[in-house]
Design goal:
This protein is mainly beta and about 180 residues long. It is about 5% helix and about 45% strand. A hairpin with a 2-residue loop joins strand 8 and strand 9. The chain starts with a strand and ends with a helix.
């Protein structure tokens, strides 16, 4: 189900002593982050915002984006933001080009179901790997399953029902959970 807010980044960890925060982008284009951009701080997709920040500087690195936020000028303040998501109101987001597109942030929290194995868990994260994305699927008490985000493996995404349908290649599930 679509939230009124769209997750666009995850604040991972403090960087340096001047308050920069290493941020994982949840968009397909890092250029969507701009100086002066106002974002909401949320703990997860459906949580109410607990604050608002303004991006004052952006630096791209191989590990992610280094963001400077207004009022965040030291390491301790930066640490206090870590573990939160940056979000924007859906009406402020950039328009999608067609019906087959979706915002990556809308997928976090979706149920992942394999056609033959059934419920695999919930999508908790994305990993960039060699030019493509990998889904991180978590089920309590089980090892995470890493699933390449390829059309041949992920044939169907339904934002309205928070469901991602997958067809795992032979041996992939066993690699993580058996």
């Amino acid at each position: 189900m679509k939230s009124v807010r769209l997750l666009i980044g995850y604040l991972q960890r403090a960087h340096g002593v001047r308050g920069e925060i290493l941020t994982r982008s949840l968009t397909d284009d890092d250029a969507r982050f701009t100086e002066g951009m106002r974002c909401l701080l949320v703990k997860d997709r459906d949580a109410e915002p607990y604050g608002e920040v303004t991006i004052t500087n952006i630096r791209a690195t191989p590990s992610g984006l280094l963001l400077a936020l207004r009022g965040c000028e030291d390491r301790e303040t930066a640490r206090s933001y870590c573990g939160s998501y940056l979000a924007v109101n859906r009406e402020d987001a950039i328009e999608l080009r067609d019906d087959d597109e979706f915002y990556t942030g809308d997928l976090v929290g979706a149920r992942v179901i394999d056609r033959s194995l059934g419920d695999l868990g919930v999508l908790v994260d994305f990993i960039s790997a060699g030019g493509s994305e990998v889904l991180v699927v978590r089920k309590p008490g089980e090892n995470d399953v890493l699933i390449p985000f390829l059309k041949s493996i992920v044939p169907y995404v339904d934002i309205e029902t928070d469901t991602i349908e997958v067809v795992l290649p032979e041996g992939l599930f066993e690699l993580y959970r058996e």
